[in-house]
Design a protein that fits this description.
two-stranded antiparallel sheet, 1 helix, 6% helix
């Protein structure tokens, strides 16, 4: 495939693909991304990198790409801040002319600008895990004193158990 294309430094996720719209079917170009930080609408990402290969088709431009980024997150167990690694894949057909598109986000504008922000936002939102955990073995906060049990063990006695629930302790695995 031909070499990569230089990105717009002011808005690197809005690609000028007008030159591709006049090429024959099968023409392809690569777009490489390596940005220290980027805002995709309401999502702040750091260390954004990846590449997208755009291929001219009879219907418009077919985009395939893989992207990685780091998102600042908060653990649901210990409430600690950490960096969540995210990976997203792009595989979409962007219609041209835009009037033929069923979804305006999946169209190349008449000015030849392809805006990847809306589709990448969706891809990265789907890449975020349902339970954000700083570590799969996170010990969470102590239910009694609120201490982060990843940092230090609690030295207080366990909470009293309601006698009606005492029978349920027999169901817990022995340690």
């Amino acid at each position: 495939m031909p070499g990569g294309v230089q990105l717009n430094t002011h808005d690197p996720l809005r690609l000028n693909v007008g030159f591709m719209l006049h090429e024959s079917v099968g023409f392809s170009r690569n777009f490489d991304f390596d940005l220290p930080e980027v805002a995709i609408e309401d999502i702040q990402l750091a260390a954004f990198s990846g590449n997208a290969s755009l291929t001219r088709t009879a219907q418009g431009l077919y985009a395939q790409g893989e992207f990685t980024a780091i998102s600042p997150s908060q653990c649901v167990r210990c409430l600690g801040e950490y960096d969540q690694q995210l990976a997203a894949e792009l595989s979409e057909l962007f219609a041209y002319p835009p009037a033929s598109a069923s979804d305006p986000q999946l169209a190349v504008s008449v000015t030849g600008i392809l805006d990847l922000i809306p589709i990448l936002r969706d891809c990265f939102l789907l890449a975020v895990p349902l339970q954000l955990l700083c570590n799969p073995d996170c010990k969470a906060l102590c239910a009694i004193c609120g201490n982060d049990r990843n940092q230090a063990a609690c030295d207080h006695p366990e909470a009293e158990v309601d006698p009606r629930f005492e029978v349920l302790k027999s169901l817990l695995p022995k340690q």
